[in-house]
Design a protein that fits this description.
By secondary structure, the protein is of the alpha/beta class. It has helices spanning 35-44, 58-61, 64-70, 145-156, 171-181, 186-200, 210-216, 225-235, 242-254, and strands spanning 5-11, 15-22, 25-29, 47-52, 75-78, 88-90, 95-98, 103-109, 118-122, 125-129, 132-133, 136-137, 163-166, 208-209. The strands form three sheets. A six-stranded mixed beta sheet has the order 1-2-3-4-5-6, with helices on one face. A six-stranded mixed beta sheet has the order 7-8-9-10-13-14. Bound molecules: fe (iii) ion and zinc ion (ZN). The site of zinc ion (ZN) has 4 residues, from loops.
Length: 256
Amino acid sequence: MNELRVFPVCAFQDNYIWVLRLGGNAAVVDPGEASPVLDYLRAEKLQLTAILNTHHHADHVGGNTGLLRHCPVPVYGPCDERIPSVSRRLREGDRFSLAEFGIEFSVFEIPGHTRSHIAFYGGGMLFSGDTLFACGCGRLFEGTPRQMHDSLAKLALLPDATRVYCGHEYTLANIRFARAVEAANPQLAEWEQAAGALRARNEPTLPSTIAAEKAANPFLRCDQPAVIAAASHYAGRPLKDPVSVLGAIRDWKNNF
Ligand code: FE
Ligand code: ZN
């Protein structure tokens, strides 16, 4: 294999651990567990060269120590002591190269799901963790609607063709919710059919693209009249700004 490819390793119920691979080398994003990664590396005869973490939740970092025991590699992650194994702590605008893959990643700070959540962008790919999901966004555990809105808006500025690799297989449930918010959006019916067909074959619905997210993800569409109207109906009062619209639909999704 002479070109960089990205493979999903499944973990827990619905987590994806993304494996970047080129030649005999591999890097993993958000290894919540070590054992499925070690199995994959062994089966594919790959050498681990780096670990990337988007945020501190156990289902994204729980495999770090198990992997480091086998292969002492650099760990790229946020400035947050809740991930003690991070060796390269990253901030907004930082860049780093993974030489084995001929790729340079830029770092975005995207608080909202957690206060120190980051995303990795490089080679036309975005690893968005639990902030931007396909057709959805993460819960606001440590952040405000304002923070999530601004984080999503930052990611929405990336090129349309950017492939979005998020941390969970939540796409179908997210589309179902999005259809409750914006029933008349034709992109949603189309996406639901395509994603349903993939899931029926037990294949991932990811990556998505920034273009698809902008066209269908209600959390990126908080300035659209139909989304504003649905959010206002849910809230029982007229909502005027995109941040309060995001807050309302996030609350609605929590109870959906
Ligand atoms: Fe998660
Ligand atoms: Zn999380």
